[in-house]
Write a structure and sequence with these properties.
single chain; mainly alpha; 6 helices; rod-shaped
């Protein structure tokens, strides 16, 4: 039983070290630190979830040991009562068997008590390390947000600076005085309303009216 707990703890420890001791290469940091961190965060989340299985298994094993201890205690109580009865019968074979059973269960309870204590201590260590892993992942996520914020600000500054730089080299707008001179110039005067050319029929009617006026003046004279 001790070997099982030892192997379980060692496996958990190996997974933790493999996750957090893996160095990121200089190429990863140099190429794209945010992308490298994103990959690292996803990997850390996955490994943290995997190691949770070891914690759950340790808790399950501890519970099984406690069940075994309870069963052994119940059987010990039963054999102790039977041993007392066997002593009253003076039947040595029954006395010897009952005594052997009592000794066996007492020894088993002693071993189980020690194993439960060890399993409890190991479970506390695993739970603490697992919580530490979750905090590390959370810290990496905070760092991820910080880098994303820095990247966003850098891009914003770059775009803003580009617009400002382009505006400095653009053709300047007219000044207030230039605008006033323009509106006072003849070119800026509002054009006169254009008259619509008369149609052919209208022109003939006008000519007819003028001819009538001329005839009337001639008769008066």
């Amino acid at each position: 039983m001790t070997n099982i707990f030892t192997r379980l703890a060692e496996t958990f420890e190996h997974d933790v070290r493999q996750l957090f001791d893996r160095p990121k290469t200089e190429q990863e940091r140099r190429d794209n630190p945010i992308q490298a961190l994103n990959v690292y965060v996803r990997e850390a989340e996955k490994r943290t979830e995997q190691t949770k299985r070891w914690v759950d298994r340790q808790a399950h094993l501890k519970a099984k040991l406690e069940e075994e201890q309870k069963q052994a205690q119940d059987l010990l109580t039963k054999r102790q009562e039977q041993y007392e009865l066997a002593l009253l019968t003076n039947e040595q074979d029954l006395i010897d068997f009952a005594k052997m059973e009592v000794d066996t269960y007492e020894n088993r309870i002693h071993v189980l008590t020690s194993s439960i204590q060890r399993a409890t201590d190991e479970l506390i260590i695993l739970e603490r390390k697992h919580e530490e892993m979750k905090h590390k992942v959370k810290n990496m996520k905070v760092r991820q947000l910080q880098l994303m914020s820095t990247e966003n600000v850098a891009k914003a500054h770059r775009d803003m600076d580009q617009v400002i730089e382009e505006s400095l080299h653009a053709r300047p707008l007219a000044s207030h005085e230039e605008m006033e001179r323009y509106f006072e110039s003849p070119k800026a005067q509002e054009p006169a309303e254009e008259t619509t050319p008369a149609s052919t029929l209208e022109e003939r009617l006008e000519n007819l009216s003028k001819k009538q006026e001329t005839n009337e003046q001639s008769r008066v004279e």
